[in-house]
Amino acid sequence: MSATASTSFPAVLTVLVLVPAAGALVLLAMPRTRPDLLKPVALVASAVSAVLAVWMLAEFDAGSAASFQFWQQHEWITGWGISWQVGVDGLSLFLVVMTALIFPLAIVGVDAEHSPKPYYAWMLVLEAGCLGTFVALDLIMFFVFFEIVLVPMYFLIGGWGHGRRAYAATKFFLFTMFGSALMLVAIVAVAFLHSSASGGAVTFDLTAIAESQVLATNTARWLFLAFALAFAVKVPLFPVHTWLPDAHTNAPTAGSVILAAVMLKLGTYGLVRFGLYLFPEASVYFAPLMVTLGVIGIIYGAIAAAMQRDLKRLVAYSSVAHLGFIVIGTFALNTEGLTGGVLQMVNHGVSTGALFLLVGMIYERRHTREISDLGGLQKPAPLLAAVFMVVMLSSVGLPGLNGFVGELLVLLGAFNAHRWWAVVAAAGVILAAVYLLWAYQRVFHGPASGANAETPDLRWREGLVMAPFIAAIVFMGVYPKPVIERVEPAVDAIIAHVEDNVAGFAEPVADVHPSVSLEDLARSDKADHNGGDGNGVTDHNGDDGGDHNGGGE
Amino acid sequence: MDPAGLSTGWYLALAVALFAIGGVGLLVRRNPLVMFMCVELMLNAVNVVFVALGAGLNDVGGQVAVFFVLVVAATEVVIGLALVVAINRRRSGATADDVSLLKG
Amino acid sequence: MGSVLAQLPVRTPPVDWTGLLPVLLPGAGALVLLMIRSLVPSRVVPAALDAVWTFAVAGAGLVSVVVLWQRDAVVEAFGGQLVMDRMALFVAAVVLGSVALAAPTLPRYCRRVEVASAELCVLMLLAAAGAVVMAGAADLIVLFLGLETMSIAAYVMAALNLRRLESLEAGLKYFVLGAFSTAFLLFGIALVYGATGTTNLDGIASHLDAFILLRDGMLLAGAAMLLVGLGFKVAAAPFHAWAPDTYVGAPTPVTALMASAVKAAGFVALIRVFVEALGTRADDWRPAVFALACATLAVGSVLAAVQSDAKRVLAYSSISHAGFILVGVQAASDSGVAAVLFYLAAYAVIAVGSFTVVAVLSGQRDDRTGLDTLAGLAARRPALALGLTILLLAQAGVPFTSGFVAKFSVIAAAVEARSYWLAVVAMVSAVVAAFAYLRVVVAMYFRDSGDETETAAETSKPSVGLGAGAVIVAAVLLTVAMGVVPSVLESLSSTAAGL
Amino acid sequence: MLEAAWLICAFPLAGFAVLVALGRRLGEPRAGWLATLAMAGSFVCSVAVFASLMGRDPAERRFVVTLFEWVPAGDFSVDAGLLVDPLSVTMAMFVTGVGALIHLYAIGYMHGDGDFSKFFVYLNLFAFSMLVLVLGDSLALTFLGWEGVGVCSYLLISFWFTDEANATAGKKAFITNRVGDWGFMLAMFWAFGALGSVRYLDLFGQADSLPSTTATAIVILLFVGAAGKSAQLPLYIWLPDAMAGPTPVSALIHAATMVTAGVYLMVRVNPLIAASDAWAPDAIAWVGVATALFAAGAAMAQNDIKKVLAYSTISQLGYMMLAVGSGAYVAAIFHMVTHAFFKALLFLGSGSVIHALDGDQDMRRYGALRAAMPVTAGTFIVGWLAIAGVPPFSGFWSKDEILAYAWDSSPALWAVGIVTAALTAFYMSRLVFMTFYGEARHGADAHPHEPSRLMTAPLIVLAAAAAVAGVLNLPFTKDLHFMGSWLEPSLFGNEAHLSLGGGAQWLLALVSMAGAAAGIAGAVAVYLQHRLPASRVEWPAAARAFYVDEAWTRFVGGPGRRAFEGVADFDAKVVDGAVDGIGRSVRAGGTLLRRAQSGFVRSYALLTAAGAVALLVWFLFRTSF
Amino acid sequence: MSEAVFIVAAAIILAGAIGVVASRNPVHAALFLVQTLVGVSVLFVLNDAHFLAAVQVVVYAGAIVILFLFVIMLLGVDKAEELRIEPIFGQRPLAAVVGAALAAVLGTVVVTGADVLTGLRRAGGDRALDGEATDIERMGRVLFSEFAFAVEITAALLTVAVVGAVVLTRRASRSDGPETADTAASAEA
């Protein structure tokens, strides 16, 4: 993929990553006497990068979305061929924007329950890490950010979480660390094998390695597995998903929001950027496996979600199901599927992030997440219920809201690639309705008794936090085109890359016929009339449909 | 005169035996002092090896090495005995097995 | 006739005094301090003098190292016996640096725990001198003597907290096993000498280059024995058993030194003997080192995960780090050596820093190191907790710390040498070890110090003190700096490795 | 005017938006009026569109209004576009028309409800979705409306959510529909896979190039969807429960419009049906007629007035599917329209009865109400005659046409249809007699009274329509076959041509009249003259709808739930257990290794020596002697 | 001739060694040690290392063993050690096995490898043993030329020894008696 630097503000991505980090340092330096300033500072820091991200979105050249834009490279560890190389293309653009936008919302929306200084500091570090992961174009740099995000999240869960927070935090840290342990080995192996095969110096430059496919088939497959394991844990795919429910359930609200909205995407994004792009052949080879796991995840996650007694746990498991869609879309290996997958990354970020915020609000009001303790909240809190309803419907995949577009494309793509898996996966749409509507009914419907009856409705601030989410949900459902047309070129490039580098692989597409215009139809009608206008032509009647002659010939 | 009249192998065999005995002694004796003596046995085995090989190589290096081994042996004994003394201050008649507070 | 020969002058080798400085300064400094302390009555000179002096001497040594580094010719400091090449200088820097980092903690520590600070400092410096000798040794005999100087000093230092029986026990165990392994080492030297006719490292190497041994039994047996002796010094399993007990029993600053300087010296010896002298026989010893590395990694990380004492966790973790460094040795390549050197430098800083934190917290008798005493430290001393956390995360290999870069470099070396499985084992054990560190973090952050009955007085607000504070801050800053901009240290270590 | 067809959808959408924004501030009754106006506006638009469409030459009576590109990805591209053709406009007209009337009625009916404005928010949203469903120019867009109406019905059924039963009913409706939607989606994917497009025009133009198996698969999958929406066996189960919603909702959504979407869809894709294997339409026909008979049987024994109407709706939908299956698309639409009139009428009537008796829905406590509420009674009776198939009321014509085509396709279908017709006549008469005739059985405290004008006006209009709608499509001569010729352009000549001559048709008509008469007579005998006790005809099996619903419930609540719990346990115990197990085993290994660290220096020495031996052995292997 | 001497010396050495290991009383052990040392010095003589032989006797037998005896007396630990019981389970059998294995392995390697020394035989130079110089002269020259630095370091080594001995044997300022409960506890940690 070619790369273009931004003329007006070349360092935008670097700054984007560094601003939150700097904000964290500032927070640490803040005097203990002014705790009231902590949140504003954190907010400003994250808001700045949000603004930068939006500016970037505006500047982004949709025409050349397949190439890395705002591209920039600095020396980092020259001796080992490691460089600070950043850039965004259609795949990462919206993930970056979403990340940069969700963090301020999460910071505004949720106050630190205690010790705000480290809390906001960790949040900012987390933001820097996530953004870094999405913009990194150097394998080591990617890995570095991919790993560093564990630390702040670990402390957020352990320090501000509920329940078995220490257990959940440790489990999260070790599980994901184990996943990426092998990836580091694989990364290094890729670099060395690449340099020895291509005779060049050792480099960890993603594009350089990916564009010159020099690895032996078998080696590439092994390495792919090492990468895939890391990403599968992050995604998470069945059966390495069990850290997710614990982490989500015990994390503080903001933590779960970020975890769901951003951090799970690190895995799916990695699968595209470092799976398909780096190992096209292996991706094709293992596509059935990945799709199978994805489908299992969809059904399995949905069923497990339906049976949860803890609202947050339920939403967590729903993520397992939704991420399954993304994976099958990715490994459908055609434009529709992959586009849908990328779209779904953003959609899931928005709707599940919003869901966790809402669950957090409910918890704040009722101090329980046990579904059985809740009920009838819609009476005292109609607005909350309404917002929840919209978000829920988008997560169910209702047409007209964002969830649908992604799912539709994913399933379309999957249907052309792995028909019967798509048939099963589509059943996941039913299950989504089952667990979410059931949960909604148990929480919001029915008579409100006791404490439930006094549940306060949405406050202004909360409303303002939710508004952007709702807006995004509706907009991306009604008019996803601007997003798609920025994503698709990059997707096409990836698919083309796969096709070029895998012998005998052709993108599984629908067989397209020339589009039919009204005129054609009218003409065929004419013919039909002239033919059929005689006295009762009997070969037209209902039961011998075999030789019905349809509208056109 | 010619030491090769008697093959180096014999010396080495002897040394190995001595070394092994010393090692086993260190493993089976509980009195720290005796354990140190066993270490001395092992060092002497080394000395034999050095001298024998040096002779075999017609090289003085072996003897030089022995010289330094002697020095080191001396210092080690000094420190070892000092340690034993210090420990016996706290626990008279302590055997090697008695000092096992640290474990796990 | 013999009389004729007797007339001939003895050709004493040329001495390059500046080249000798890295050895001379600590050695002479030790003697000077010894004299001051034994001649001048103690009320005249302040108690802190020992530490300050040690720091100054080590600093001076560092300066001399820097100066020597500027020379591009290999410095034959003392004939062909002490060759201060770049690697030697690098390790000398690590050794002296760790001494300099360990010193500032001493005044308060020695006063609190009542350890004879003068002798401690003297021994520290002498040990450092011995370590530097090991680094520069060009001859197995010299290497051996340097090693003994360092080790014997270490035995004594380990036992120096005379009021604490554990300390004496640590000394005794270290000593007995040390002597035992020394015997093996010597036997090894003897056999190699027999096989190659020389104890000079270059001599050995060139001899093995020049001749294909028809019968290499003696050589290989020697190699095995050497591996035992040196493996013991770097605490490689199964020769590690002394390490946990000694680390825990020894006065904490001494432990810090053992984990940093002593380890560094041991590894440089390993490199000198195996990678350089026996490099031609790498195919024979690499599998053995492979096995040692795996065992060390496994033992270190798994046992660290089940400890309930912070100091012991660190002890076992240092074993697992030894395993990582062995991975670099196993690569038997220049990049492997570079990785080892990088790791040694990074880990020296981390180790001294972490053990200093422990030393600050360890109370009157230097034995309050249980995890429960750390409970709620974050609330009582946020800065201290943060410092220790960063150091622990660095040990876990979290990015943007020197620990990550170090691990990366050894892994890279291993992969480059095509020993993928060793790399995998290393990474997996890193995860297990991470669990151990996280337990410490959990204790500090997520567990509030509930059972603060009698310990409260002592541990609730431990006073860090200027020296220790400075050390910790320095260690943390260095750790992070080396993680964010590793290229400096990376280029240094590769130069030292002759890359 | 055709370009402005989007206004049809725009009006209710605007109404929805305004009501969301400031519905609460508008309050009652203004919110209701606003919504009603929106519907009226959109009705006017659709009439205008209809007119301008009439102005064109039949072959030109198709028009596509593309608003914007909705989802363009790769080969897949769907626009937010409206397909304006006779079929869709017909639908649009009666949806908006009946809709407007029911909105009007609802203003009165929902009087005093706390969530008055919210009710109309939902209604307008529903109308919008329904119109998108009808006018959409691609399967995808239809699906958008399809799911939209589903959600609205969910929201409206559980409108009074404080009652668990309503909430459950709403959920049931949505989920059951989702099962159908699964079929719809797959059909959409398959169509895309086969033709690279889901635009109707492409489907129509290229239907014949499809392999017949593909076409069959698509049709069957679409029918699964249709069966969900249009409450065919076995997915009908949600509709009877859906009566939990407010009566206007039942009238609008669960009688007149939404439930007919399935039929509309099948008619819409007639070229695909034409291209599919013969068994596909037959299957549709049989499912339809089976549903019709089944539901009619169930309706005979219901005591809840709305349940009776619900089952009768299902049964009538069965008729429509029968029509679709036998290629009588015009008849299907014709019956859909007439049914919309009289069933809406009946529901609204029942609504005002329930209203009058303070929400009591049990017919056994009704009786002799015609005196108290003459208008309701009168209009209701018109509706009754219409649905019972008594000429010249509308129902007779539409149902008769369907039966004629059914006979043409296979006499067996016709026979079942006739029986159903007789049953229909019976249970409707039963309903009327129990409600308006006989002696009053309601409590003394109840004072049945005629509802407000707002509510009676729609009744009268609908009654009129129900009475005369038959003229839309009179069978006597081709020229009177208005609807048939009007819908021609949408059917591409796939409409089956009746093979039997006029005489035969007359004969069939007479038989069906006889059937209707028999049914009414039977009802008179049982419920007016009490010749034999009602219990003889109301068998319990029918009262419980032949236990189908129970079976479903028992399955979902029993094995289904257990399976789900099994999976959840598997996750908690096996998968997660494995993870924790690894951790535990590591710790176990650690504690084991700790033993080796015994603290005895001599054991350490032993370990060292052993290690030395091991190394020596290894090197011994490497030596060459 | 030399064979006979060797055999006798070897016998003495091994006997002494076994004596050291087997004698219950440390004093006896020390004396057996002397026996071994003397035997070794005989071997030195046999190899013309007269200087070393002398040093061996003087330093080892004369100094070190005396040191041992002093400490034994000082601490009064000259009581017989009970050798029949072995507290650590399986220590002795394992020790025997390991010792035997060690001997066996080393034996095979060394003996087979040694009868042809692979090292170079140096001709002439200060180091050659067959030169005219006496072994003392020879060692002197080599020690102060080639190994001068090593000799220097021994200074540091001895300093360490002295300092260490002093600091360890000096009475601890405030020794708090036999360890108390909490020491044990901390040791458990």
Total strand count of chain B, please?
0
Quaternary state of the chains:
heteropentamer
Kindly name the structural category of chain E: mainly alpha
Rounded radius of gyration of chain E (Å) = 22 Å
Please trace the helix and strand order of chain E, writing H or E for each element: HHHHHHH
N- to C-terminal separation of chain E?
A: 63 Å
Number of strands of chain E: 0
Measured as a percent range, the helix fraction of chain B is over 70%
Main sheet properties of chain E: none
Description:
In chain A, helix 1 (12-29) runs antiparallel to helix 4, helix 13 (311-331) runs antiparallel to helix 14 and helix 16 packs antiparallel against helix 17. With 553 residues, chain A is mainly alpha-helical. Chain A has helices at residues 12-29, 38-59, 90-109, 116-135, 139-148, 150-160, 165-198, 206-211, 217-234, 243-250, 253-276, 280-306, 311-331, 335-366, 382-396, 402-417, 419-444, 460-478, 481-501, 518-532; strands at 69-77, 82-88. In chain A, strands 1-2 form a two-stranded antiparallel ribbon. In chain A, a hairpin with a 4-residue loop joins strand 1 (69-77) and strand 2 (82-88). Chain A is globular and about 70 Å long. Chain B has 104 residues and is mainly α. Chain B has 3 helices and no strands. Chain B has helices spanning 8-28, 32-57, 61-90. Chain B is elongated and about 50 Å long. Chain B starts with 7 loop residues before the first helix and ends in a 14-residue tail after the last helix. In chain C, 76% of the residues lie in helices and 1% in strands. Chain C has 23 helices and 2 strands. Chain C has helices spanning 2-7, 17-39, 49-70, 86-102, 106-113, 117-136, 140-158, 165-196, 201-210, 217-233, 242-249, 252-277, 282-304, 310-331, 334-361, 371-374, 377-380, 382-396, 402-416, 420-445, 455-459, 466-484, 487-496; strands spanning 75-78, 82-84. Chain C is globular and about 65 Å long. Chain D has helices at 6-26, 30-54, 86-109, 116-135, 139-157, 164-195, 200-206, 212-229, 238-242, 247-256, 261-268, 270-275, 279-299, 305-325, 329-356, 374-388, 394-409, 411-436, 453-468, 482-491, 502-528, 534-537, 540-543, 548-596, 601-622, and strands at residues 63-73, 76-84. In chain D, a hairpin with a 2-residue loop joins strand 1 (63-73) and strand 2. In chain D, helix 2 (30-54) packs parallel to helix 4 (116-135). Chain D is globular, with a radius of gyration of 31 Å. The interface between B and D is small, with 13 and 10 residues.
